[in-house]
Specification:
The complex is a heterodimer.
Chain A (H helix, E strand, L loop, with lengths): L1 H13 L3 H9 L27 E12 L5 E10 L16 E9 L6 E9 L5 E3 L5 E4 L2 E6 L2 E7 L3 E7 L6 E2 L5 E3 L7 E18 L2 E16 L7 E11 L4 E9 L4 E9 L5 E4 L4 E10 L6 E10 L2 E7 L5 E4 L5 E12 L2 E10 L9
Antiparallel strand pairs in A: 1-2, 1-13, 2-3, 3-4, 5-6, 6-7, 7-8, 8-9, 9-12, 10-12, 11-12, 12-13, 14-15, 14-23, 15-16, 16-17, 18-19, 19-20, 20-22, 21-22, 22-23
Chain B lengths: L1 H13 L1 H40 L4 E4 L5 E2 L3 H6 L3 E12 L8 E6 L1 H4 L7 E4 L13 E4 L1 H6 L7 E6 L2 E12 L7 E5 H7 L5 E2 L1 E6 L6 H10 L5 E3 L1 H44 L1 H9 L4 H37 L21 H28 L2 H5 L14 H15 L9 H28 L6 H12 L1 H39 L4 E4 L11 H8 L4 E12 L8 E6 L12 E4 L6 E5 H6 L7 E6 L2 E11 L8 E5 H8 L6 E6 L5 H12 L4 E4 H44 L1 H9 L4 H43 L9 H27 L3 H8 L1
Parallel strand pairs in B: 4-9, 6-8, 15-20, 17-19
Antiparallel strand pairs in B: 1-11, 1-12, 2-10, 3-4, 3-11, 5-8, 6-9, 7-8, 13-21, 13-22, 14-15, 14-21, 16-19, 17-20, 18-19
The chains are: A mainly beta, B alpha+beta.
Amino acid sequence: MQPLRRRMLGLIAAAPIAPIALAAQADAAVAYPVVRPQRLRFPEDHGAHPAHRIEWWYLTGWLEAAGLAPFGFQLTFFQIRPGIAEDNPSRFAPDHLLVAHAALALPQAGHLLHAARTARSMPGLVGASVGDCYVRLDRWRLWRQADDFKADVDAGEFMLQLAFGPTGEPLLHGEGGYSQKAPGAEHASQYVSLPQLPVRGRVRVGERVLAVSGKAWFDHEWSSSLMHPDAAGWDWAGINLHDGSALMLFRMRRHDGGALWHGGTLRRADGTIQHFGPSDIAWQVQREWRSPRSGVRWPVSQTVRFADRIISLAPLMDDQELDTRSTTGAIYWEGAVRAMEQGREVGRGYLELTGYDKALRL
Amino acid sequence: MKLLLGLFISSLRRRRFAAALSLLAVMLGVALGVAVSVVNRSALDEFAHGVRVLSGEADLQIVGPRNGFDDALFAPVVLSEGVAAASPVVELDVRLPGRDSPLRVLGLDLLRSIQIQPALRPETGPTLDAGALLDPDLIYLSPAALQRFGLSVGQTVRMQLGARTIALRIGGVANGFGAGQLAGLMDIAAAQWRFDHLGRLTRIDLRWASGGDTSAARAALKALLPPGLQLVPPAQREEQAADMSRAYRANLTMLAVIALATGAFLVFATQSLSVVRREAEFALLRALGVTRVELLRGVLAEGCAVGLVGGSIGVVVGHGLAAIALNTLGGDLGAAGYFAGSRPALQFDLLASAVFLLLGLAASVLGSWWPAWRAANADIAPALRSSHQPMLPPASVHRRVAIVLAAMAVALAALPPLQGLPVGGYLAVACVLACAVVCLPALAHLLTRSLARWPGLLLGLVRARVAATPSHAVIAAGGVLASVALSVAMAIMVASFRDSVDAWLARVLPADLYVRSAQGAVAVGVEPDALKRLAAIPEVARIEPIRHEQIRLDGGGLPVALVARTVPAEGADRVFPMREMRPCSGDCVWVSEAMSDLHGWRTGQQVQIPIGGGEHRFVVAGIWRDYARQSGAILIDLARYQTLTSDMRANDVAIWAAPGVAADMLRERVRALFGPSLEIASAELIRRSSLALFDRTFAVTYALEACAVLIGLFGIAASFAALAAARRREFGMLRHIGVTRGQIGTLLALEGALVAGIGVVGGMLAGGAISVLLIFVVNRQSFHWSMDFAVPGASLALFAVAMLGFAALAARLAGGQAMRLDAVRAVREDA
């Protein structure tokens, strides 16, 4: 549930009229399919599952370019099924809403460059294909071609043209992809990752075009369930470790700040997978950064204890806050982090922090 | 100089009545001009604001037929090079059952419109879930619409949709609309679905990416558009609105200018007479060392004072009139159609105020010029003699000038319009007026001589008096002439117009009953299924559906109406009154006069018309008279239209009763089929309401005519009041020889009537000529409609008699002052 929520947060941030998407979650008249443990098939399951309430394709990663310090990027496509007037035969019928969100974390910029698009599904223009990954929102596209995923996003201020691959074996979280997010079996999602994903391509920032390469983390998740009523927000991290292993950790927080649920997955370079449950993980704040804009104190540096290891997460830069309160009421922190173990960098990835200004009402 | 000005300006105070009349005339002219401009400016500004609100920050709009175009165009437009944002729009005017004001329903994709029309968004109620923005059963109404229709959030509102009604719930208030805009906001998919507009868009608003607006990008975008669709900047739509109402506005302004000219004439009349009366005073001033130039300036200053004060009051009054007009008649001054349903807020119009203030000043300076010049150049010596009888110089006839003016009028009338305005026509009207004024002395001479045969002492005296002071008569009659000419011209024009419209309505409304879904620009029509049910009613002999569409021809210009009706084999003149017609072979259309005026279409010509997303070739088989659509209309056979567009709906349905079925019975049956909300009207009712609308449109011009007549009567009163003092001795003498006071009163009245009579005869002749110009030049060029000449003889005769009566009364009242003097004193004064 929590990554679900995490992505919902991105969604709120991205949508110019986010309440539409939110309301669609709360107030639908259609019967959404409930996720159950099942055998996933690829590449079919890289494609869309349009009957579900929400689904997303989520790419985060670190990029390097000649003469530049490493920087982070994030690209997300959400598909939401509002379940409103699905019998409307109009071409503009909002059978699905798509939200796309792109951000660059350039240390020299000091803050995020980001852009968002929202649109209703429409054949030939906006939508996510079933059967294989092909998601488009006007000119923003994410699709699979041969063994690669490709992304083409022109946000005006910046542009991403990236190829991801080879993908390797999908990492299925939880029970073969059935990932529980909070107490109760109904709070779950289908959750597939493609970690340690080589990425190359071009990034344009302003007028400057950079040839880039790096490592990405690709999440694909779908669900129909709502956020647990006791949950106030969450912390999530997806880290590509330098030894070739991949680590995903999350915690769902209660309104009092305590943990409602923990979860995580570690896949070692040899392919062996270790799943962590609520009792295996503990998060601890190391350093807070107070946003001068919002006044919110973000725990930008945290230590996570899981199994026998302790990994601290240190941000690429402190200010990776996304303040979209004026349009959506949401404010969150999503940024590139380094994973440190015993004082040295063991990996790079992304950390997401939500619900620190107030409880997210989702 | 100060002293001098005081001397002259204070003279105005001494002749308060005459000065006040001149002032009033100038004031009226300025007020009318300002009012017309203010009303129009306010209406245009409101319209422009409305366009801006609806188009938001759009750089360009894709527009096409009013009934919309295929929405499959949207995806390629979004993906077209250089386009940053595109917002699809379904814009429909719908009617609430039983309500006249149309509601503009705007179907928007809020997720996209937010990038172009960010101001337009619903404000949802506290209890309403925001997801309801996509709810197909919800509509969000503008504050003005809620107020006008007496609705509140949460209520259900019914809307007329062809032959049926649909119900929508009011989800909340739609923000961002202009004050007074009756509008509703819906999700675009919901609007398409609920209003039977599936697959159609009426507009796409676009914004370029920065640097995206290149000629290549424009060309790529244009290449996507099927025929009949155009790429226009929103500002162009504002211009088109201004163009639409420009001719009407220009004609009203011309009336104001004519009122001002009449005012100038009144200033001239009163100043001339006052200068004559003050000859001795001026001679004395000259003798005391005042120079000619100072004298000239002094008299001109008097005129300026009148113009300035009258003009200033006129500006204020004009805004007041505008406020009243906006409140009672609306932004189109009663002429329905230009800004239907608008109630714009009054705006101060600095430019018009300045221009008309200057015009008022110019009118009074011009009117004072000749009197001032005469005062400055008068002989001092005779005027200083106490026995001097001040006299106007004899009026002379400038035959050559008259002929030149008449020739100029004819030549100007033949000129083509200038930027859609009949400038030549207006100038020709001015020439005719000037020519009539120049001919007045001759007319006065002619009339008095022809009256010579009439017996009686009083008549003899009247005749002698008028003949002896022709200049006085001419000046007073001049004012009457101008106002009568204006009124007569308008009366003849309006009567001709009304007769022609009446005859036209009889032709275009042949059926017994009309079912109308088209009020204003309502695009949603009666569906084919309802038409079938209608035709199946036993009391119905036959029905004829009529479809109205609005298309855009290549090369821009205003949208053109497309009227799809069944054109019978016997000929298209059964449908519309044809001015020209030829047998139709092949694909034919018949076009209105405006099409031949504006687009140069002639019978027999091959034309390309974009219909149903394709360009089609037609032959123009006739030109018909159309009073309904001033920017042009094309008649096409309904079956052909339906083949080309697959649009099977109808806006209006003409219904013929079966033999022996009464109209009431038929109406009852149709009503039973369609329910109470649809508008069902008999041909007679439509005819009457159309004529009522016509009369309302001309109500403003009636008011202007009344003002002009009033000014003319002022002229009579002013000149008689001015001469009254000078005639004390004359009246004293008459009393002395036994003429009674009552007889002198009759004498004055008859003099007034005779002077007015000269003006009335001249005015009738000039008015007749001007009406010809109005009908065949001004109206034709302004509105592109022709009409049959008709003279409302009885009304004009009544008007003439009333003018004579009022003039007699005015002269009697104004001259009364001189009669009150004791006869003996008056004669002694003479001795």
